[in-house]
Amino acid sequence: MGSGNAIRGSRVGAGPMGEAERGEAAPRVRVPFWCANMHETRPSFASDAAVPEFWDCPRCGLPAGQDEANPPAPPRNEPYKTHLAYVKERRSDKDGAQILAEALERLRSSSRPIY
Ligand SMILES: [Zn+2]
């Protein structure tokens, strides 16, 4: 019977850590955006940066999105969005509102502070 002492994880995480990374140019990714005029722009982002959902088109200033087939509509020509589109676009805000609502509900339903 073995002693069970063989595996001690001495080399956990040993991997190709030191690949040619000189620290001068962070890795970048190019993300294409298209505006309603079908201008394509490809700003580059640091690979660890959050890529925004929309990007201002450098040629005409309209908002550009990552979906070529469905670029964001020019704000001027679309004064009102459908409610659903609005909700989808603002879902992070909605999450925030929901969290707030839950917190308020918890406050209301919980017992009042007792001194
Ligand atoms: Zn444009």
From TrEMBL:
Binds to RNA polymerase (RNAP), stimulating transcription from principal, but not alternative sigma factor promoters. Pfam families: RbpA. Its cofactor is Zn(2+). Forms a complex with the RNAP catalytic core and with free principal sigma factors. It comes from the Bacteria. GO terms for molecular function: bacterial-type RNA polymerase core enzyme binding; zinc ion binding. Residues 1-24 are annotated as: Disordered. GO terms for biological process: positive regulation of DNA-templated transcription. The keyword Ligase does not apply. Bind 1 Zn(2+) per subunit. InterPro entries: RbpA_sf, RNApol-bd_RbpA, Rubredoxin_Fe_BS. Belongs to the RNA polymerase-binding protein RbpA family. It comes from Streptosporangium minutum. Keywords: Metal-binding, Transcription, Transcription regulation, Zinc. Zn(2+) binds at C35, H39, C57, C60. This is RNA polymerase-binding protein RbpA.
